[in-house]
Request: fold
Amino acid sequence: MVKVVKFGGSSLANAAQYQKVIEILRADPERRIVVVSAPGKRFKDDVKVTDLLIKYANASGENVKVARQAVLDRYQEIADAYHVSDSDFEQINVHLIDLANLHHANKACRLAHFKAAGERLNAILMALVLKKFNVTARFVDPKQLGIKAHGDYNNAILDQHSYAQIEAVCSNLLDEAEYLVVPGFMHITKMVRYALSRGEGQTSRGPFSHVVSKLSFMKILRMWTPFIRLTLKSLPSHIQFER
Reply:
């Protein structure tokens, strides 16, 4: 039996909460698929990481660095408590920097991408922390699980074929003694961008443009439908969900 365990933001708010999560996982060796939210509030008047990411997305000028550092500090605090190396932690810093430099189709897409980073980075960090306890742990990108959706950037609908893909991936875990750590509110959608050269430096985009080049790329978006729902629908009988 493989069990899926989902932890919300309050359960992952700081290093002390991380320790409780690790104890829960180690109490039952069948708990091997770990679904995480972004770090929540550490105390009543605290700001959760998702809200810090929204501030980062809306920041401009010198405020961009300040907003990014506020997010980074939350993850750094946890990483330091578990002696995660600077080289391992650097991927979190790089991802946060890249967020501000990526091109987004519109403001809604940009905001969704920033918010999704909270779960993604916490899943990466959780995998790094678990390794400190001499266990095998791996961050799993939603793309690897085949979690795809369509619709509004911030209110997407899961594609039906994703369920079969998730089941296939989960089934393959049975012979592997490792933890898989998955971001809790993310999915992938495949977008196609069309570009038409119209003179020096000018382009036209749209479904009716004459296609000069077609670029397929993956965008990480926020899925507000809880991961719990898709997990419950997709799990085969030998995989159990816990919360």
Summary: Residues 57 and 107 are 9 Å apart (CA to CA). Residues 187-236 have pLDDT under 50 and may be disordered. Strands lie at 2-7, 31-36, 137-139, 149-152, 155-158, 179-183, 186-197, 203-204, 213-222, 239-242.
